[in-house]
Amino acid sequence: MLRILHVGLGPLGIRILNDLHEREVGHVVAAVDNAPALAGQYLHQYVPKASPAIRIQHSLETVDWSVVDLAIVTTSSDLAKCADTFRHLLSKGKAVVSTCEELVYPWLRHVALAEELEELAKRSGGRLLGTGVNPGYLMDALPAFVSSVSKSVRGVACYRVQDASARRIPFQQKIGAGLDDAGFAAKVREGTLRHVGLGESLHFIAHYLGLPIERWEEDIEPVHATRDLQSGVGAIPRGRIAGVRQVAKGYFDEREVVHLEFQAAIGQHDPYDRVLVEGEPRVDVVIPGGVHGDIATSSIVINTLPRVLEAKPGLHTMATIAPPFFVRAGTKR
Amino acid sequence: MLRILHVGLGPLGIRILNDLHEREVGHVVAAVDNAPALAGQYLHQYVPKASPAIRIQHSLETVDWSVVDLAIVTTSSDLAKCADTFRHLLSKGKAVVSTCEELVYPWLRHVALAEELEELAKRSGGRLLGTGVNPGYLMDALPAFVSSVSKSVRGVACYRVQDASARRIPFQQKIGAGLDDAGFAAKVREGTLRHVGLGESLHFIAHYLGLPIERWEEDIEPVHATRDLQSGVGAIPRGRIAGVRQVAKGYFDEREVVHLEFQAAIGQHDPYDRVLVEGEPRVDVVIPGGVHGDIATSSIVINTLPRVLEAKPGLHTMATIAPPFFVRAGTKR
């Protein structure tokens, strides 16, 4: 059983810890969250199978490092905001898995920080990986893995089309469901409607598959309801916003070589995930129904833990650790 | 550019070497085949881009090891028949990639030999991997990689359904096209009609995904033409053999936990590959049209070369090397 320090007790963090205990892959030995309301509370209020003795700590300063094998960090999408946490954990020589979206390919927006973390990890014997279902798997690790059967690759396209009807209300709010166009535009300007990670996935593909990108762009636009819809945020009349469509495109020599498309809307018909590797051979991979985002992100974090623990010290990506697969408790590998 | 020693100049070996040079990922520095007709011949007759100075050697004894980075072995499906070659290469501390089907999961049929090769590799600094598109990818590495989004896995099913119409004549002959039932049964008894590797893929999945197998079975049966067909081996009247269907099933507690199905027939409609991971979530991955076997096997051998070279010394599988992806010449990773 892996002994886990968890940092960041938002909904995703709590889900991961509950799954970790339910699956008996590991157990939490310490939990940290800097929200004043959480400090000192008993973790088992949120994670019923956690030891009743564990109180949520306010900071990493009070952690007993001798009992920690691995750390999981679910605090922010923004690598700069996670940096101090990663520095602290790496300086203790720990292996760290995080859902920080920008960490999936940190060289896009944080070259200097990525180099600093890489050096610190190597020096102190730590390991650091960013993962998740998207970014982290469907639009980066999976297309790279699919391309292993390729003799040539001219381009890559990935599509993630989701029906948001069955998702939790905060998710429906986040994609703008029920807004009018002005309200949607305002949320886009605020930056609260953006799915983080398409740029990271795009540059992950470009880097590992040798598809040079001269310029890239990312657009976000509303998906309008084409009929009256019901949703968790109330009725959505035809013409109002049902959800969001976000597209990232990478160009070389005016040719689009990487195309990533993310769409989540209430009432979306026939959701799916799809990876298309254009080349010899052309490989078209379709997942009808798509991959459930919440379960998958928690699962991939847990399933990568053993692979990160056994990896060389350093800053890793999903292309440099051994391929993760479902980890069953008590199974020798 | 990787400097390659190639052992085994059958059609697959020659294809790999031509692809290797065309892709400029590596170049061959020595080639060995024990067929008397080949020894002493110039390799560039078969591999036009190979150096005109290279003659095919009859044995590994005469190889200049100082110029070899990696070896590729395409000699036999049978691990026992490849064992002396692997011993020789590993004793020189070389990294070796082979299409030997039984090497994809050698512990199924050759436990003692697998242990011997593992120990030799570790002692001498060599690395050994068995791969290919099937076995090696579609029914083992790919379902394992798909399961990385899984919270639980109850079972795995893989399907490979191919239209043999466009394949080379030896392949059409190998699947029994044009035979009557008695002729098909005779070839099955001879063992010449068998696709090698379903058992290896099945036990690969069972091992890494923790699906204990109490017993397993493998069946082979003819696919009959349901209409008059044309093929490379001549006309196939309705009712004659169009191809072969081979199914491997692994059971635990009388429940089928792994199901692998391979079908190749002339005139097969809607060929596809499919991986179904039953669990939470259920993940159904479909590749309409399927993956072209000849291109893919050559590609995956070439694309795994850098990952095997950087792996720890030892006997590897597709689950223990870093995940392969398309390797583009001149790309820094």
Key structural traits:
homodimer, Rossmann fold, six-stranded mixed beta sheet, 13 strands, alpha/beta, 2 domains, seven-stranded parallel beta sheet, 333 residues
Write up this protein.
The structure is a homodimer of 333-residue chains. Chain A has 333 residues and is an alpha/beta fold. Chain A folds into two domains: 152 residues, NAD(P)-binding Rossmann-like Domain (Rossmann fold, 3-Layer(aba) Sandwich), CATH 3.40.50.720; 150 residues, no CATH class. Chain A has eight helices and 13 strands. In chain A, the strands form two sheets. Chain A has a seven-stranded parallel beta sheet, with helices on both faces. The first copy, chain A, has a six-stranded mixed beta sheet with strand order 8-9-10-7-11-12. In chain A, α2 packs parallel to α3. The longest helix of chain A has 18 residues. The radius of gyration of chain A is 20 Å and the shape is globular. Chains A and B meet through α4, β11, β12 and α8 of A and α4, β10, β11 and α8 of B.
Return Rg of chain A in Å: 20 Å
Q: Name the CATH class of the largest domain in chain A.
A: Alpha Beta
Name of the CATH homologous superfamily of the largest domain in chain A: NAD(P)-binding Rossmann-like Domain
Shape of chain A: globular
Largest sheet of chain A: 7 strands, parallel
Count of domains of chain A: 2
Question: Which topology of the largest domain in chain A does CATH recognise?
Answer: Rossmann fold
Count of helical segments of chain A? 8
* Strand order in space, largest sheet of chain A: 3-2-1-4-5-6-13
How far is the N terminus from the C terminus of chain A?
Answer: 14 Å
Q: Beta fraction of the residues of chain A? A: 25-35%
- The quaternary structure here is homodimer
- Average pLDDT, all residues of chain A: 96
Percent of residues in helices of chain A: 25-40%
Low-confidence stretches of chain A: none
Number of strands of chain A: 13
Would you identify the CATH architecture of the largest domain in chain A? 3-Layer(aba) Sandwich
Largest interface: A-B, 55 and 55 residues
The succession of helices and strands of chain A, N to C, reads EHEEEHEHEHEHHHEEEEEHE
